[in-house]
Structures are given as structure tokens and as C-alpha cells.
Amino acid sequence: MEKLISKFKNAAPKAALLMAIAAGSALQGCTKTDGGGNGGATSDALSSDAASKVYVAPGKHDEMYSFLSGGFNGQVSVYGLPSGRLLKIIPVFSQHAENGYGYNEETKAMLNTSHGFVPWDDLHHPKLSRANGTTDGRWLFVNGNNTPRVARIDLRTFETVEIMEIPNSAGNHCSPYPTNNNEYVIAGTRFSVPLDMKGGTGDVSMDKYEEEYRGSISFIKVDKEQGDMELDFQILVPGFDYDLANGGKGPSEDWVFFTTYNSEKSGTLKEIGASQNDKDYLAAINWKLAAKYAKEGKAKEMPANYYHNKLDKNTHTAKSTVKKKVRYLLPEDCPGMMYLLPAPKSPHGIDVDPSGEFMVVSGKLASAIPVFSFSKMQEAIKNKQFDGEKNGIPVLKYESVLKGEVKEPGLGPLHTEFDGKGNAYTSMFVSSEVVKWKLNELKVVDRIPVYYSVGHIVIPGGDTKEPVGKYLVAMNKITKDRYLPTGPELAHSAQLIDISGEKMKMLLDFPTVAEPHYAQAIMADKIAPNSVKFHKLDENKHPGAAKKESEANVTRKGNKVIVKMTSIRSHFTPDNIEGVQVGDTVLFHVTNLEQDWDVPHGFAVMGANTSETLIMPGATQTLRWVPKKAGVYPMYCTDFCSALHQEMQGYVRVSPKGSNVPIKFSTGKKKQNIPGVASAK
Ligand code: K7E
Ligand code: CUA
């Protein structure tokens, strides 16, 4: 998207017309609606029909989960479908004050990188883990674009449990793509850079772009049981830009496909420089063969420097490991591993249909959508129908691999999903519509306007072998008049479309958190039954845990004060602490003793330079505090946990440095029995 938008903004001659069209479509939306934001309005009868289709009665559950990327928000947001209700925000590459992620001592290490602590990233593509080419509801993999990282979310807890930095990468955009049984999660670099062969970029003149800049594709192994990731090897590829990828299925399941642009290898003003060639490439990589080459000794090793951060299950604490080498393959050493298929200028999306036979490439500025045939590709390879080579990689003849083109589909095709009933749906960024076409005949059969400028679309399982062809969610880049105005900054917007019939029907608009790029959706029954309700206290191995109130204490070690504290409705133990001195580092390890669903306690202390932290039942979390002034500081529970939540508070006394006030702690010297305390929430 970024590239496309800048194209319109700068109005290079060729893009000028398209820019006008883009602006026109947005303006049209603004003026034709009367402030009610009812663009694409339907009659009242139709509206009530749509309303009944998205209505989920109070207390009833949605049929599906959807996971929308947060884009520059760095998070994943979870919505129920069809209601569009926001269920959760899962922080991944961003700090989250709501629960303390990235602020408390347990999760800070999640955001460590070779560049230091990086508490933000640009999250574009969520991908659900797979079993036999369909989603299995175990994990969600997501990419960090800016400081190249791949993260794994555990869908039992909806928590980020692992983040791996990707070495030799710069802009981890075509990422992360799981193979059909999560053998690998594959991640490609967007920018090519002069690799210093140590996981970074070398100090090389930009005039040497053509000769010295390279890209990389990373193959991350995923543990079958636990999901833990490990970087197995990389393929160092020519210095193009790698945009998006998709894994094959069925006959093509050993393959993964990447769109490339800037095959011109222009190092500057790419909106022109990267648009010289009439065709760029779709890169096809046989990942199974690559893995075999790597295993059989074709891989070389180079020094590297990248972080791998994992949440330990027992202590619920993230630990960083620094990795110091990486294996790599060169395509020129590995015959049969990689081919290039010419694709119309600067393609963006690449999507493989459920049968695994068709590869749909979205040409952004192209007037047709080319569809490649996997069986033709196999034939062409067998018959050596090559059109030369690039960096030792054979280029296949366009005609020899093309099934055909969808003619005049709309303007600005970006991404395609499938319904499993022989139809494909492509988003049109410029003409703001979703276009439905027949895969076999390559014929457009329906189109529906969306508001406005749609990027990705998602159909539950629409990128797998088994789509659920019921709904499509369009994620739109421009919101304009769709909701009550909120000043210059508006929420982004998604639209739910019914695709169960022949004609697409608009059902619902819902605002989204920051900028969703891609999303995944899945039937709720693949996730909900496994959802963890609380952590078992006896499995808590956190070194700072106090598992009963009698274990709570405060100890001093030099200028460190360690507080082992418990929380239960509705008090902390201890709730009176003395003997802390200015400049001490106080670590509040707070254990939530509750063993019941939905009873978190929060913890905050006045003047702490982080956020509060929210502790789930059975877990321990740590808030670090360095008091700067003598005084008495209140602390309290931040989550309204019982009728006596407001009473869930205490004090810490801070004395001047060197004071002789001893460490002292207590709770409830005068014990009282307050009825109803334990049962309130
Ligand atoms: Cu098209 Cu980053 Cu998948 Cu945005 S990308 S839309
Ligand atoms: Cu515990 Cu409020």
C-alpha cells in the first residue's frame, strides 16, 4: 500500500489519471451522502434484512472470530463476526497500558531487538496456523514490518508468546506465511539492502545498489507441539523489492510464491525508477527442496545478530536469547529451487486458490488480473520454456505459465480471496469496490462498492483449502463520512459483506483500531473450547510468586527492595510497607491468588514511570518503581474487582536515602470480618 499511496500523492504523470480517479471516488462518497454516511444506502426493507443478519442477541456469541492487524498501531484486534463487536486488543509490537504489556518486567523482554528496546512496529499480516492446509486455531503469526520481526500469539490465552527478529532483512513485509502444516513460516524482506552478512546492513554507497544490494527470504521452523519458532535458513535473493507472498496448496503445496517489484534495481525515486520494466516477477520457491538443500549441506553459515524472545510458560516471563549465526542458501547453487514468472508491472497481492492450481497476481496499476497456472508452470519447467535468467534464476516465459487474464476487473486490484465455490473476490483500491469473478472462466460476475479505497479483504479460510464462503470483510483505507466525525483523525473502517448468494450484499460497517491491512477469520468453535480461563496457581513457577498470604514479604538486597505481594478480593498483602528509601529499585511482584474466571486485579503506585499492570488469576506480574522523593505513596487495584474494589489499596512509605527506618510490612493489624468480601464480582 505505501508505495501505491505515494504514487497517487506525487502524481507522477502516469499515475495522474489514477489519482484523479482515486480522489473522485472518495469525493463522490462524501457528497452523495448527506452527513448520515449512508453511502451505498439500501431501502428500509433491505436494511432490516441486513440488520437481522448481523444481529447477535445480548448474551449470544458470534459465529466467528476475526483477527485484524493493527497496522501502525502494532497490535492485533479481535472482532466477532457477524456482529463486528470488538472482543479484544492483543498487543504484540506495542506497549499496552491496559494490561501492562511491554511495561511490566515480565513482558519487557518481548520487545528487545538488536537495536535495543523497540516498543512499536507496523503490523500488516496475521496468518493462522495450519493443519492439512486449513486453519487449526492454535496460533496466529504476525509480522513486524519496520524492525523486521515475526511474532506468535497463542490462541488459548490470546497473548503474544514469542517474537523473533529477522536478520538480513529490511522491511519484513511479505511475511509471515505458514506452509500447510506449519512446517515453516516464511518471511521475505521488502527492501533490499547491502547485507553485511552479520544480520544488518553494510556501509555501502547507494550508487552500488545494482551490484551490492540483496534481498532475503527467511524460513522459520515451527515446533509441531509447542509452536516455538527457530530460524532454519535464509535464501539470499536478487536485490528487488519483495512485496507479498502466499503458500501453495494441494499440488502446489511444496511451493511458496512472492511478488516482486523494482526488478530494475533502482535505488531512488522508485515510483519512477521501479516502473520502467513492463514486467516484474512472481518468484516461485520450492520450499521443500530448499529445506532439503539446507539439510544436505548446501547451506553456508554467516555470523548474525538477532533477538529471539519467548514467554516461559511456567514463570509467565519473557526471556531474550541473542542468536549469533544464520545459515543461507544461494539460488545459483540450488537448481530447481527458484524460478521467476514475469508479472505485469509492480504487482502487489499474490493469492493461491483453494485447489492450489491458480496463482492470482494483482497488478495495482494493471488493467487486467493475470492468473497463472501451477500445472502450466510445472510443464514449462519440464520443457525449459525459459526467457533467460536473472542472477542465475531461470525466468519462465509469460505465455507458458499464464492461464489467462481477468479483463477490466476495476481499477487498482490489490488482493484476492476465495469462497471455495469457484469464485474469487478482488479488492479494487482505486475504484473502491470488491469484484467477484469466476476462477474458471475469468469472468466478472458481480461488483459491490465499498467505502472507501479498500486494501485487503478477508473471507474466513479464504486463503486456505477450505474457505467458509459466507462473509467477506473489506478493510478500507479511507473512512471520511462513514461515522460521526471525530476531528481530523478518524477510525479506520471495515465492512461486512454477505457472499453466500450470487449477489454480494453489504451488511455492516464497523470502525476498527488503527489501520488493518490483512485479517484472518475462523469459526469460533475452533478456538473457544480451548480458551484458558485462569492460570493454575500451583503451576506458577515465578520466582517472585507468593502463593498464599503467609508467603508475602518485603526484603531488602542492597538498594533493591523486593515485595512479594498477593492480591485477592479485596486486599493486598502486605498493604502497609515501610523502610523504602529514595533511589531504591522497588520490585512489586504481585500474585493474583484468585482461581476463577474473569477476576483480574490491577496494581498501580503513585509516580511509577510505567503503567499499571493487570494480573490474571494465578499469575504473578512485576511493577518496577524507583521513588524519587520521600513521602507516603498510595497504591491500589486498578480493575473494579468487587464491591470493595475501592477499598483495595495500601501505602508505601519512602524515607530519605540512608534513613534508619527498617523494612516493615503488614496487613490488617486489627482483623475484621466484613461480610460479602470474597464473593462480590
Ligand atoms: Cu496490501 Cu501491507 Cu498486505 Cu496493506 S499490504 S493493504
Ligand atoms: Cu482488585 Cu479491584
Structural account:
- This protein has 681 residues and is mainly β.
- Helices cover 10% and strands 42% of the residues.
- The chain contains eight helices and 45 strands.
- The strands form ten sheets. Strands 6-7-8-9-17-18-13-12-11-10 form a ten-stranded mixed beta sheet. It has a six-stranded mixed beta sheet with strand order 41-40-43-44-38-45, with no helix packed on it.
- The longest helix has 20 residues, at 13-32.
- The radius of gyration is 27 Å and the shape is globular.
- The chain starts with a helix and ends in a 15-residue tail after the last strand.
- Mean pLDDT is 91; it is low at 1-42 and 670-681.
- Dinuclear copper ion (CUA) is lined by residues 567, 601, 637, 639-641, 645, 648.
Give a topology summary.
Blueprint: H1 2-10, H2 13-32, H3 44-54, E1 64-69, E2 75-81, E3 86-91, E4 112-113, E5 116-117, E6 123-131, E7 134-144, E8 149-154, E9 159-165, E10 174-178, E11 184-188, H4 209-212, E12 215-222, E13 229-237, E14 241-247, E15 255-261, H5 270-273, E16 279-286, H6 287-295, E17 300-312, E18 317-329, E19 338-344, E20 350-352, E21 358-361, E22 368-373, H7 374-382, E23 386-390, E24 393-396, H8 398-401, E25 402-407, E26 413-418, E27 423-428, E28 433-438, E29 443-449, E30 454-458, E31 471-476, E32 492-498, E33 505-512, E34 519-523, E35 553-557, E36 560-568, E37 571-573, E38 576-581, E39 585-592, E40 601-605, E41 613-615, E42 620-625, E43 631-636, E44 649-655, E45 664-666
Parallel strand pairs: 13-18, 36-39, 38-44
Antiparallel strand pairs: 1-2, 1-34, 2-3, 4-5, 6-7, 7-8, 8-9, 9-17, 10-11, 11-12, 12-13, 14-15, 15-16, 16-19, 17-18, 20-21, 21-22, 22-25, 23-24, 26-27, 27-28, 28-29, 30-31, 31-32, 32-33, 35-36, 36-37, 38-45, 39-42, 40-41, 40-43, 43-44
Helix pairs in contact: 1-2
The structure holds sulfanyl-(tricuprio-$l^{4}-sulfanyl)copper and dinuclear copper ion (CUA).
Dinuclear copper ion is lined by residues 567, 601, 637, 639-641, 645, 648.
